Structures are given as C-alpha cells and as structure tokens.
Amino acid sequence: MNAERGRLLGIDVGERRVGLAISDEMQTIASPIPMVPRGATEMDDFRQVVASYNVTEIVAGLPTGMSGREGPQATDVRDFAENVAATLDLDLSYWDERLTSVQAERSLIEAGHSRKRRRDLIDSVAAAIMLQSFLDARAMKASRR
Fold it and tell me: What is the band of 60 on the pLDDT scale with cuts at 50, 70, 90?
C-alpha cells in the first residue's frame, strides 16, 4: 500500500492497552485519539479506527533502552505491530519512543489533569509525541531531497 497520502496511525503498545495517535491527511500533525484495550476485541477495534480515519500506514513506537538497544519488550511490540499491519494490510514503520511517556506525563501534569485522568490519557499522548517526531523527521528528510 502506498503511504504517500492518507493518515498515519501511531501506536504505543503496552501490556493492557495500546495508545493511539492519528496524523492529518497531509501527515504534518499528530493528535491523540482514544486508546484500544488489549484483549479479545483489539483487532476489531483496530479495524474500526483504520476505517474511520482512512489509515494508510502504522507507525509503532519501539521501546529501546537509553543505549539504543532493543530489549524483550521491543520483540513483543514488533510481534504485535507486525500482526496488526499484516491483518489490516497496512505498511508498517517503527520509531524510537524513548522518553515519550515521560514527556506525556509532564505535559498532562502541566495541563492540570488528575492522576486518574493522566492514567487514561498517557498512552495516547505518548503515541502522539512519538508520531509527531516521526512526521517531523520524515518531513525533514523529504525537504533535503
């Protein structure tokens, strides 16, 4: 599938839920959208998101250590993301998600959200931060051509 135009779906894969973010059609701005709980209905939930937003590509946040090395969690993320992309016939890219949860937590605290509300939002905000970084890097690369 060609991802030149269309929306990108950023995913931040966790054990209990998957934080989601969506780009605009021009692939310049990422925004958080409601997360998908892990479990029996997760693939149906992904199908609905992909259809609703006309998603053309998935960008999965890849957890790496501060050294840049991938650990066991990265393997789980790769397995999950590859399954979703293959099932939904979408292109898949990976992007470093180091420190996105920390950035998300700080921004939610600064916005005055309660601890419970932060817990509900953090995965999708982290996905938006990761996806925005991916979009910015892609745009920078394209401008150099």
Answer: very high
Is residue 34 pLDDT above 90, yes or no?
yes
Spatial contact of 138 and 32, defined as CB atoms under 8 Å apart: no
For the question of whether the overall pTM of this predicted structure is more than 0.85, the answer is yes
Structural domains of the chain, with CATH: 7-143 (3.30.420.140)
3-state SS of the chain? CCCCCCEEEEEEECCCEEEEEEECCCCCCEEEEEEEECCCCHHHHHHHHHHHHCEEEEEEEECECCCCCECHHHHHHHHHHHHHHHHHCCEEEEEECCCHHHHHHHHHHHCCCCHHHHHHHHHHHHHHHHHHHHHHHHHHHHHCC
Neighbours of 24 (CB within 10 A): 12
- Which residue type is seen at 142? A
R_g (Cα) of the chain, nearest Å: 15
